[in-house]
Amino acid sequence: MPIPTAVTTSGNAADGLVQTVLVVDDEPTARIALAARLKRLGYRVIEAGDGMAGLDALRRERPDLTIVDWMMPEMDGPSFCESVRQDPALVSSQILMMTGNDQPEQIAEGLARGADDFLSKAASKHEITARVQAGLRSATLIRRLEDATEEITRKQEALERELQSAARYVETLLPVSGRVVPGVQMARIYRPSLALGGDLFNIVPWSDDFLGLYLLDASGHGVSPALRSSSFATFLRRDSLLRHVGSNDPGAILTEANKQFPLTESGHYFTIVFASLDLRCHILSYAAAGHSGALLHRRSGEVCWLTQPNLPLGFDSSTTYVTATLPIAPGDRLYLLSDGLYECPTADGELWGQDRLETTIRALGQQSLETVIAETIAEAVRWQGHEQFPDDVALMGVEIAV
User: Fold this and answer.
1) Max CA distance (Å), the chain
2) What pLDDT does residue 195 have?
3) Fewer Cβ within 10 Å of end Cβ, the chain: N or C?
4) What end-to-end distance do the CA atoms of the chain give, in Å?
5) Taking the C-alpha atoms of 203, 210, 320 and 353 in order, what is their torsion angle to the nearest 10 degrees?
6) Is the sign of the CA dihedral 3, 9, 12, 15 positive or negative?
7) 293 exposed, middle or buried (CB, 10 Å; 0-12, 13-18, 19+)?
8) Separation of alpha carbons 365 and 318, rounded Å
9) CA-derived radius of gyration, the chain
């Protein structure tokens, strides 16, 4: 029959807080004697007369240290330790095992089954004091670590909420799929690698028959690239471009942006492709700075990658970016995409690549623009074998109506 649990309170520990010790022993005389010594040392003491009562007290009171006797009926000390280590709520509890047989083999067994330290029943009062204090120091450190971990978790959750809020704001900067200007449809998908990404893309409608569009990629991931990209997006608004550049020419826009956005102190930079569609003259103009993620898929099936061997922005303020032109026709589609799309890897590191991307777009042919965008992303997901891309992925397509 379990012996009723007794609780007494004594003085304070050195840090001003009362520390609690649970003594689990079926022998009343030994248990009461040890409890009395611990009370004189200033600890709050809980007594339990068997292993099951000890487990109940441990769950209820969460003492700083538990001292448990090895030899007890029904549940001995090692079994008590195993039960504690198997309980996620108790696993970090500090346990000091009392034994009358302190042979190395027995000590090894007790440690293997979950005890943290041993206390001989023949120990002097000085050794008892020292081992209890050592156990309580360990318990204090563990609880401080648990408290710190909980605080870190709370801060991480708060940061995650902030990142998600910022990500929703970034989404408001992106264009909405659908009709852009008369005769032009747009569809897009954006998949940031983190809650917040550094890729941005948008439409700059100069007029009903002249359209600008860009895809911007900030080096790095997370909050800082997203903030830098948001600042750059402000520069790329129509009114800002007219004020700073005075032109809708892609090369002139990137040349001015190169001066406005130098390398950061930590070496971060932008890559960008900027294109303009003259719907009246059926001309595509474009310029790129370290970015090769643009292709023209003609209605005839021909695919032209829009590439220019230029530095990313910010490396050399004297760099001049040149505009290239191509004819366009009704039914042609222009795709702007981040390199995270075609650089997604398999588990063994093989990249999807521009060739597979181009093959996918060719195979999808003249299906709806929304279908091509969605199926291209889905094919990249199938290639890497999971939904989460290691880099930001953006794909925007515009189609000139037939």
Assistant:
1) 103
2) 60
3) N
4) 91
5) 50
6) positive
7) buried
8) 42
9) 35
Instruction: In whole angstroms, give the CA distance from residue 273 to residue 163.
Output: 27
Domains of the chain with bracketed CATH: 6-147 (3.40.50.2300), 173-400 (3.60.40.10)
Q: How far apart are CA 359 and CA 154, in angstroms?
A: 46
Assign 174 to helix, strand or coil. coil
Q: How far is residue 313's CA from residue 310's CA, in Å, rounded to a whole number?
A: 9
311 contact partners, CB below 8 Å, separation of at least 6: 289, 290, 319
Average pLDDT (204-228) is 87
For residue 95, the surrounding DSSP H or E stretch is strand 95-99
Residue 237 tokens, joined: 């608004």
Query: 3-state class of 275 per DSSP?
Result: strand
Name the nearest CA neighbour of 256 among 200, 312, 325, 319: 319
Q: In whole angstroms, what is the distance from residue 240 CA to residue 234 CA?
A: 7
Kindly state the percentage of the chain with pLDDT values over 70: 95
3-state secondary structure of 173: coil
Lowest-confidence segment of 152-161, 181-190, 378-387 by average pLDDT: 152-161
Cα–Cα separations (whole angstroms), residue 54 to 51, 278, 389: 5, 82, 50
> Within a 10 A sphere around the Cβ of 141, how many other Cβ atoms?
11
Q: Is 40 left (phi over 0), alpha (psi -120 to 50) or beta?
A: alpha
Residue 86 is inside which H or E element, if any?
A: none
Q: pLDDT by residue (tens digit) across 15-44? A: 557 899 999 999 999 999 999 999 999 999
Helix (H, G, I), strand (E, B) or coil at 245: coil
Pairing of strands 294-297, 283-289: unpaired
